[in-house]
Design brief:
CATH topology of the largest domain: Rossmann fold
Order of helices and strands: HHHEHEHEHEHEEHHHEEEEHEEEEH
Number of helices: 12
Largest sheet: 8 strands, mixed
CATH architecture of the largest domain: 3-Layer(aba) Sandwich
Helix content: 25-40%
Distance between the termini: 43 Å
Strand order of the largest sheet: 3-2-1-4-5-6-7-8
Shape: globular
C-alpha cells in the first residue's frame, strides 16, 4: 500500500501536535497511515472518535449497534437533540467528516458478538474499547487474540474507570484479567449512573495509548491495569499477567456457548419504555428504501427512513428501528416474544420467503 504523506493544509491543522516530541512530523505521518477500530460509540467511544479524528488518524472504523436516545446526550457530546432516533454510526459519520475531511471514516452498524467480531475488526492496527457490556468485550478480546491486534480495554461507571493495553502474544488478554465475568453481576450506568468527567479521563487515556502504539512508542499500560477514581482523586496501577489456564491465550479449554438466532436482549429502558435489541447472528443486508416501500404498501406507519435505518410505529406507542445490517431495536412493547415475532415477520419480508 502506497504510503501517504502530510499535505501543507494538514500540516497547519496538526501543527500543535507535530511540535510535540512524543509525536513529531514522522509520528504524524504514521497516524495518517494508521487504521483503527472504535467498538461502541457511547460515553467512551464518542470522545475517542472525536479526538482520533481531530488528530488525523487516517482510517477510523466506527462500530455501534444502537440509535441515539435522549439519556445519551449529557455525556455523549457527538450527538444533539436533533439526532435522537438516528443510528449512532450515521450521525457520527456526518459529524466526524465535518471535523476532518482528510481522513476516512468507515461506519459499521453492527451488533458485536462471537459471530461478527472477527469481521468487524479485521485489517486494523488497534482496537479501542467503547463498549458497555462484557459479553461484547469478550468477543472482541477473542477476535483480537486470533488476529494479533492490540486491544485497549476500558470501562467506566459512577466516578471511576479502568484501562489496560492488551497485546496478543506478549501479555495477558482480557480473560486473564477478568475470568468468567458476567454482565448479570455488574452495575450499569442506568442503575448507578456515570459522571461525564470520568468518561473524558478514561477515553483520553485510551487515545494516548493508541497513539503510542500507532507511532511505535511503548504503551504505558502494557501489563498494567490503571484504576482511576475521580471522587477520591486516586490512581491505582496494578500489574497484570498472563494466566496459564486462560481459555483464550493459555491452556484452558474454551466453553462454547450455544446461542439461537435471532437473539433478543432487553437493555435499559428509554423514557420509561421497555427496549429490546435483536441480533440476527450475522449481517443481513437490508435495502432500506425497498423495504420501506413494501411496509408502507402493507399499511405500516413509516416514521423515518435514512441511508442506515428504517423506523416505523407498532401498536400505537411502540417503535421498531431496523438497521441496514439487520439489527432490530424495539421500544415500547412489554413482551420479548411479541417483539421477536414482529422482527421475524420483517425478516421474512427482507429475505422474500
Amino acid at each position: 500500500m502506497e504510503r501517504k504523506t502530510i499535505t501543507d493544509d494538514e500540516f497547519e491543522l496538526y501543527s500543535r501536535q507535530i511540535v510535540l516530541n512524543v509525536i513529531g512530523f514522522e509520528g504524524q505521518e504514521k497516524l495518517k497511515n494508521s487504521r483503527v477500530a472504535i467498538v461502541g460509540l457511547g460515553g467512551l467511544g464518542s470522545p475517542i472518535a472525536v479526538t482520533l479524528t481531530a488528530m488525523g488518524v487516517g482510517y477510523i472504523r466506527i462500530i455501534d449497534r444502537d440509535i441515539v436516545e435522549k439519556s445519551n446526550l449529557h455525556r455523549q457530546h457527538l450527538y444533539t437533540f436533533k439526532d435522537i432516533g438516528y443510528p449512532k454510526v450515521e450521525v457520527a459519520l456526518r459529524r466526524l467528516r465535518e471535523m476532518n475531511p482528510y481522513i476516512e471514516i468507515d461506519p459499521h452498524p453492527l451488533y458485536i458478538n462471537d459471530s461478527t467480531a472477527l469481521e468487524a475488526i479485521k485489517e486494523v492496527d488497534v482496537v479501542l474499547d467503547g463498549l458497555d457490556n462484557f459479553k461484547a468485550r469478550r468477543a472482541i478480546n477473542k477476535a483480537c487474540y486470533k488476529l494479533s491486534i492490540p486491544y485497549i480495554y476500558a470501562s467506566a461507571i459512577e466516578t471511576y474507570g479502568m484501562v489496560s493495553t492488551l497485546i496478543p502474544g506478549e501479555g495477558p488478554c482480557l480473560e486473564c484479567i477478568f475470568p468468567n465475568t458476567s454482565d448479570q453481576n455488574l452495575p450499569t450506568c442506568s442503575t448507578v449512573g456515570v459522571h461525564p468527567s470520568i468518561l473524558q479521563v478514561i477515553s483520553s487515556i485510551e487515545v494516548y495509548e493508541a497513539v503510542n502504539l500507532l507511532t511505535k512508542r511503548k504503551p504505558r499500560l502494557f501489563g498494567k491495569l490503571l484504576i482511576y477514581d475521580l471522587e477520591e482523586l486516586s490512581t491505582n496501577l496494578l500489574e497484570v499477567k498472563k494466566s496459564v489456564n486462560c481459555p483464550i491465550c493459555g491452556e484452558g479449554k474454551i466453553m462454547e456457548e450455544k446461542i439461537e438466532y435471532p437473539e433478543i436482549e432487553e437493555v435499559c429502558s428509554r423514557e420509561g419504555k421497555i427496549t429490546y435489541i435483536i441480533n440476527p447472528g450475522q449481517v443481513i443486508p437490508v435495502e432500506i428504501k425497498n423495504l420501506s416501500q413494501k411496509l408502507y404498501n402493507e399499511g405500516y406507519k413509516i416514521s423515518r427512513t435514512t441511508d442506515f435505518s428504517l423506523m416505523f410505529k407498532i401498536d400505537g406507542n411502540g417503535t421498531f428501528s431496523l438497521l441496514k445490517t439487520g439489527v432490530g431495536i424495539v421500544e415500547g412493547l412489554n413482551s420479548k416474544e411479541y417483539a421477536l415475532k414482529i422482527y421475524e415477520v420483517i425478516l421474512r419480508k427482507i429475505l422474500d420467503y
